[in-house]
Amino acid sequence: MSISPNVPTAQESYGYESPGTPRWITILLVLMMAGIAVLGIAGYSAQTKISQDLSEQQKQNKILTAQLDQANTRIADLKSKMEITTQRIGLTQSELAQAKSRAESIRKEQQSSDEKLTAQLTQAQKENDEKIGAVASEVGIAKKDIEATKGDLEATKGKLERSLGDMNVMSGLIAHNRDDLDELRRRGDRNYYEFTLQKSKSAQRVGPVQMSLNKTDPKKAKYTLTVVADDKTIEKKDKTSGEPVQFYVKGSARLAPYEIVVFDVGKNQITGYLATPKEGGAAAPPTAAAAPVAGSGTPAKPE
Q1: pLDDT of residue 100
Q2: CB atoms < 10 A from the CB of 180, how many?
Q3: How far apart are CA 46 and CA 59, in angstroms?
Q4: Considering Cα of 229, then 211, then 163, then 158, what sign does the dihedral take?
Q5: In what order do the strands lie in the sheet with 190-198?
Q6: What is the pLDDT of residue 270?
């Protein structure tokens, strides 16, 4: 049987009535299902992690809650003890507040004092460092001058240590302060009696003699005193600090005179020493005719 050219075949008729689903839709559906699967897995993992974290947090909360309960219990105990103690010592809340306020005030004062002290120490350290630097520089410069003048000082030392006394007799070695006097004692050439003499009508014993201070002139470093020795009264008038004041006693004429040297002339007071010869120079103690011993000074014992 022949087929008419105008009639479609069965295959052509099927293709026209039931066209196939496009491939891109199939691929899209597969990708969507894969994405949903991935999201599901990720969501499950996240949910599992959150559950684990929540469980761990709950454990920590239980521990913290237990610790908080213990702390609250301790605080309650301490509060109870504090209330009992407060009742026992009779302190009121007002007194406790005052004590706390006073403690805070003391703390602030101490802090302020510490800050001031720290600032002062810092400033003092800075000044000391500056002074030390300046002194070190000056010492370096002066060292050469000291070496240069050392010979001159040695040459003039003998002249400086001796002086012509008020009786025109060359004195022994002269001390101008207590350090010098200690050096003279170590040499042991003479007997030395240190004194501090107050102005008084009564005499003060100094070694083998007695002396009384009549007047002083601190501005001019002058003084007047009276010496009693061998039943004789000798007035030494308007003498100067550092000047050897000389006098003889029985038995000392063949040796050397006694010498008085005053370090310092103050108001109604002088300080110095009496020097006597070592051999045969000790005078007899003053007789009863001499004035009684008085004054605040303590004579030094001879070497």
Answers
A1: 84
A2: 16
A3: 20
A4: positive
A5: 190-198, 269-277, 258-266, 245-247
A6: 95
Question: Whose CA is closest to 161, among 148, 150, 170, 151?
Answer: 170
Amino acid at 20: G
For residues 56 and 50, give the distance between their C-alpha atoms in angstroms, rounded to a whole number: 10
Average pLDDT of the segment spanning 201-209: 92
| Contact between residue 262 and residue 223 where contact means Cβ atoms under 8 Å apart | yes
Distance CA 161, CA 151 (A): 16
Of 183, 186, 187, 213, the C-alpha closest to 201 is 213
Structure tokens at 171: 């004195």
Strand, coil or helix: 199: strand
Q: Does pLDDT of 240 surpass 90?
A: yes
Query: The tokens of 295 are what?
Result: 């004054």
CA 112 to chain centre: 18
C-alpha 180/C-alpha 258 separation (Å) is: 18
User: Can you give the pTM of this predicted structure?
Assistant: 0.43
Task: Give per-residue pLDDT as tens, 60-76.
Answer: 888 888 888 888 888 88
CA distance 298 to 167: 27
